[in-house]
Amino acid sequence: MASDILVVDDEEDIREIVSGILDDEGHETRTAADSDSAVAAITDRVPRLIFLDIWLQGSRLDGLALLDEIKARYPDLPVVMISGHGNIETAVSAIRRGAYDFIEKPFKADRLLLVAERALETSKLKREVTELKRRSGDPAELIGTSVAVSQLKQTIDKIAPTNSRVMILGPSGSGKELVARLIHRKSNRAGGPFVVLNAAAITPERMEVALFGTESAASHERKVGALEEAHGGILYLDEVADMPRGTQNKILRVLVDQQFERVGGTKRVKVDVRIISSTARNLEELISEGEFREDLYHRLAVVPVRVPSLSERREDIPFLVDMFMRQVSEQAGIRNRRIGEDALAVIQAHTWPGNIRQLRNYMERLMILARSDGPETVISADMLPDDVSDMLPKASAAGSNHIMTLPLREARELFERDYLIAQINRFGGNISRTAEFVGMERSALHRKLKSLGV
Ligand SMILES: Nc1ncnc2c1ncn2[C@@H]1O[C@H](COP(=O)(O)OP(=O)(O)OP(=O)(O)O)[C@@H](O)[C@H]1O
């Protein structure tokens, strides 16, 4: 594994020995004799690993001070200290200050290589973990302080440690899968798998193979299905309403027996799986139409949990916007921006039929579009892409030709109407908070709304 390694030591022979040993193993090395040239080398290209002499005599910064500077700028860059005989204590304190390890002079080539490999491997793993976390994009907790979200959090905390089957109901993109993942994380199955099976994305013919796996006596071939894969953990049945009737019968049997047969197999497979299911559809309607088995519904929805739509929790929008902006900035390497009150108000007033997923995609688009403006420019309402800023009440709300044909009184009423509807939406229908924001008495606002026919 060739890696770019920087060797920093004031003694030329040590620099040569260390880089010689590493070069022989195929690593690429650079050397620096003092702190300033080390900083310059790191600025040129951040190495994967640094070997750093503790004393570093005759240079602006000694080894420990340079370590502090490196760690402040590149907290994840591993640094191995080279310690002289008799200053182990200093080496130990360097580890406390963020060094990965130390080697003591005189050292053996084997020890040096071992430490280098381990440091490189550890930082690679750290990177992978960070990447995975970033890709998943899921926050560790539900974002928001609204009553609806606070109640949801409480419900999650209450039901997670139990083993009961949960059915999560809520519109598309509202965070059902996130809720299921949080239940998993907080349950005693957190160490076990979390397997997702999306019934809407699998054809009815493939459904049973996906769920139960296959087995062929002739070829001894075996494919593990989602139920088996989820053994000891949780199976998340997304869009369960789309499950074919035939599969519904079979899954009901699994719930009763906690065992099943693979497709084409004869052996019973015993599993210990907690099932969480979800749907955005109206199950009661589907049950009355005979599309969904009522007894299966009762088995799956021992605890029904409702996830609110975004329009039911608009007060959480500023927190979500802030999180998504930070997330996009990290993921896309775009400088984070500030968003103006006016833009936030428009976003808050929008209806968001695609819920949190739509808001996240929108923020991503907004950040990318706004990239060409200077990083200091605050994102204002007029910079919002049209689909959302159309919600903004403007004098031309009824079409600019139209409003120009109206007398002032009617034009003003038209504007007032749009403006107040947008503000009421923004505050989730709360008249007191709307009144406070628009600067009117609550009773006066009521009267105004009535006179405008809102
Ligand atoms: N309260 C929340 N805080 C932060 N992010 C959230 C929240 N709820 C949902 N998200 C994010 O919104 C996106 C959509 O959520 P998720 O996939 O869980 O929705 P869903 O209801 O399962 O959607 P579908 O019905 O389409 O399967 C995800 O990226 C998720 O991380």
From TrEMBL:
GO terms for biological process: phosphorelay signal transduction system; regulation of DNA-templated transcription. It comes from the Bacteria. It holds the Pfam family Sigma54_activat. The modification 4-aspartylphosphate is found at D53. Residues 142-368 form the Sigma-54 factor interaction domain. Keywords: Activator, ATP-binding, DNA-binding, Nucleotide-binding, Phosphoprotein, Transcription, Transcription regulation, Two-component regulatory system. Coiled coil: none annotated. CDD domains: AAA, REC_NtrX-like. InterPro entries: AAA+_ATPase (IPR003593), AAA_lid_NorR (IPR058031), CheY-like_superfamily (IPR011006), Homeodomain-like_sf (IPR009057), HTH_Fis (IPR002197), P-loop_NTPase (IPR027417), Sig_transdc_resp-reg_receiver (IPR001789), Sigma_54_int (IPR002078). Residues 4-120 form the Response regulatory domain. One of its GO terms (molecular function) is ATP binding. Member of the two-component regulatory system DctB/DctD involved in the transport of C4-dicarboxylates. When activated by DctB acts in conjunction with sigma-54 to activate the transcription of dctA. PANTHER family: TRANSCRIPTIONAL REGULATOR (NTRC FAMILY), TRANSCRIPTIONAL REGULATORY PROTEIN. This is C4-dicarboxylate transport transcriptional regulatory protein DctD. It comes from Hoeflea phototrophica (strain DSM 17068 / NCIMB 14078 / DFL-43).
